[in-house]
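can u pls check wat happens w/ manganese (II) ion
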Amino acid sequence: MVGKWPEVDLSAGAAVIGDLHLDTADEERAKSFTRWLEALAVPRLVILGDLFDAWLGPGSAGERGAGEVIAALAAARERGVLCDLVPGNRDFLLDGSFERTSGCTLHPAGALGLLADGGRAVFVHGDELCTEDRAYQRYKRLARARAVRWLGARLPRGLARAIGRRLRRASSRAVAAKTPAYKALQPAAARDLAAAAGAATLVCGHAHQARDERLDAGLRWIVLDAYGGERDELRIGAAGELELVSSTREV
Ligand SMILES: [Mn+2]
C-alpha cells in the first residue's frame, strides 16, 4: 500500500461510474440505476462518489429510493460483483452500516487500482482537486469533522430529509454564483495527488464533464461524465487498458 490509498485489483472487465446523484427519497429514479445494475456482468464495479445527491447518515438509509439502491448493490455482490465506493462531497457520510447492508467497500480517501499491465491508477471523487475553491475546501473540512458526522448519525429521518432538500438548493445556488474557473479541477492538484499515490493515471468524476488527456510528465488524467452522460463509464480491458464508454451502450 502506498500512502493512504487502499489497493484494489482491476481485472479485465471492471467498470467505473460516478456522480449518479440519486435522490434517496425517489424510488423511480433509483430504479433506472438498479435495472442497469441488475444487467451488469462485471467482476468489479467502482463508484466514484455522489452515488446519492445528499446522504445525511443512517436516517437517509431508511428512505425508499436509498433502500432500492442498497438492495440492488447487495444483490450484485451476491452475484459476485465486487463493489467499491469512493464517497463524494454529497455522500461522504456513508458509513459502516451502509457497507454492511450494501456489501460495498468504502474508500473515503480514494483507492489505488492495480492493472493487469502492472500499471497503477488512483481513483478519487475529484472535489479534492478544486483547490482554488477556498470556501468549498473550508466547508469540506468542517462538514467532515467528527462532530458533524456524530450529528448526522443521530438525525431523525424527517429532519434528515428536510435538511437534504435545503442543502441541495443552497448548493445549486452556490455553484451557479461561482465563475467556472473557481470550481474547476486543477491540473496541478491532479499532478500532486497522482505523484503522492505513485500512479501514472488519475481517474475522477465530480466535474460532470468527461476528459481523457495527458498532462506533462506523462500523467494520464481521466474524468468521467456524470452517470447518464455520453462517456459516463470507464471500462478496464484485458491488458489493463482504460477506455471511456457510454454505460447505455449495447453489451
Ligand atoms: Mn461531486
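The mean pLDDT is 89.
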